[in-house]
Amino acid sequence: MTIAEKQQEVIEEFALFEDWMQKYEHIIELGKELPLIDPAHKNDEHIIKGCQSRVWLNAEKTDEGKVHFTADSDAIITKGMIALMIRVLDDQPAKDIAEAELHFVKDIGLHEHLSPTRSNGLVSMIKQMKFYGLAFHGTEA
Amino acid sequence: MTESISTYPIERIRSEFPILRQEVRGRPLIYFDNAASSQKPVAVVESLREYYNHYHSNIHRGVHHLAQLATEAFEATRDKVQAHLHAKAREEVIFTAGTTDGINLVAQTWGRKNIGKGDLIVISGLEHHSNLVPWQMLAEEKDAAIAIIPALENGELDLETYKQLLERRPKLVTFNHVSNSLGTINPVVEMTRAAKAADAIVLIDGAQSIPHVQVDLQSIGCDFYVFSGHKAYGPTGTGVLWGRKELLESMPPWRGGGEMIADVSYERSTWNELPYKFEAGTPNIADVVALGVAIDWINRIGVAAIGAHEAMLTQRATDGLKSISGMRIIGEAKEKAGVVSFLIGDQHPYDVGTLLDQMGIAVRTGHHCTQPLMHHFGIAGTVRASFAAYNTEQEVDQFVAATEKAAGMLG
């Protein structure tokens, strides 16, 4: 699936929820299910510091020119949001990640989590994911 | 309900805060972030409109009618602050941009003149970064030392250690009147007396005390007292530094410019008298006028009545939260003012705060600008609910129920 198709899939999934509680219960569940990051990557080199919650992000280039992400956070809701980002961007071509327009966050009504005032590390994480895409794409040539 | 509570004019008070009459995410707003900033009564907002629509002018040197009206209104706030704090003289009241500004003023003037190599500054372990970082900057510049009065497990200061620190003859001792992150009311009279017996200068950070407790500078006996207007129903960008007259007179000015001079020539300038020496440039006239209205508003209800109401809410919230499984109240000092800080099990404060926000409840989460204190307790932060004159028991009950719901979702 492409990034666009993945985004559509998430939007349809969230359209089923009737209220904020169901939505957040799902995010919390996704946060709990997020595959663990290699403890070796949970260090200062991989940290994205938000004032409210911290995020760790690791990216590896695969043989097919795709990018594999793993990430973690100390806050479960942030972690759930990370799980969505990873679902959409993981194992996608580096170039597509760099150019991705992540409209799905707004479409599922969670855009406020990307507000800089929240200072939860998510905005920086997305920037960092796209930066990895750009960097890995640049090394392909 | 007890009799004292039933006579508290909660309905009338709430009617004076239009901002409270709104829904957030389809639920009535419950504003429990008052320790960060309180909301403003209509009288305060109206005074700003009145000022700008009818008598705005620059103050002090104008010969015309509007300048006189504006000057009188601005200076009337100085008198109100003087009376409110029981200060001896009106010129001891210096208007600042807020608590942080006032502390930096003292650090950069009194501090740079009086703190030297090897001198000791004693700072309480309950301080906001605003009352720590300016002293760290000064200590670094002057090669001075800093010692911290540790906090006890219950959120009170360790007064035994404090007394030992005083034996090292610090030049300056500073602590807050009320802790912003835990709500602890420090024994300021006793602590000041001990510091003065050791010949230290005492600065008290009153940012969290002004809206909750009566401040009587004559009974406290400190040298400097600072606070912000916006936490006390007044506008943002206002604050007060009160200082003992002889100290303020001995201090060099900080910012140079208009208002603060007596005579200026290209060779040298001489300084204006107190309080203007420390009020360079056109001050925040409108907001200072409105700060006076905020102080009047507090006094109309009475600090004691507000404090008692908030104490009742704090107790009710604490009791309610304690019924939630895994609840940890952070800071249970015997004397507290309007703050409940807590954690639920291992749940991250950000998660709890985010879910409370979904239920229309505004709390603050994180380290509350007191990172060293959080480290002291071995935590990264807390969820903090803080109360004001306009909060109700019903709101507290809804907040407790919402917190229980959030705990269930995260658990």
Key structural traits:
A: Sufe protein. Chain: A, B: 411 residues, Aspartate Aminotransferase, domain 1, Aspartate Aminotransferase, domain 2, 2 domains, four-stranded antiparallel sheet, 15 helices
Described by strand count, sense and barrel closure, the largest sheet of chain B is: 7 strands, mixed
Order of helices and strands of chain A: HHEEEHEHHH
Number of strands of chain A: 4
The low-confidence parts of chain A are none
* Overall mean confidence score, pLDDT of chain B: 96
Largest interface: A-B, 14 and 15 residues
Number of strands of chain B: 17
Can you tell me about this structure?
The complex is a heterodimer of chains A (141) and B (411). Chain A is α+β, with helices and mostly antiparallel strands and 141 residues long. In chain A, 48% of the residues lie in helices and 15% in strands. Chain A has a single domain, classed as Sufe protein. Chain: A, CATH 3.90.1010.10. Chain A has helices at residues 3-15, 20-33, 76-89, 94-99, 104-107, 122-138; strands spanning 47-49, 54-61, 66-73, 92-93. In chain A, α1 (3-15) crosses α3 (76-89) and α2 (20-33) crosses α3. The longest helix of chain A is centred in the last third of the chain and has 17 residues, at 122-138. Chain A is globular and about 45 Å long. The two termini of chain A are 24 Å apart. By secondary structure, chain B is of the alpha/beta class. Chain B folds into 2 domains: 3-31 and 303-410, Aspartate Aminotransferase, domain 1, CATH 3.90.1150; 46-300, Aspartate Aminotransferase, domain 2 (3-Layer(aba) Sandwich), CATH 3.40.640.10. Chain B contains 15 helices and 17 strands. Chain B has a 7-stranded mixed beta sheet, with helices on both faces. In chain B, strands 13-14-17-16 form a 4-stranded antiparallel beta sheet, with helices on one face. In chain B, strands 1-2 form a two-stranded antiparallel ribbon. Chain B is globular. Chain A binds chain B through residues 20-21, 24-25, 28, 51-53, 74-78, 120, and chain B through 25, 347-351, 354-355, 358, 365-366, 380-381, 409-410.
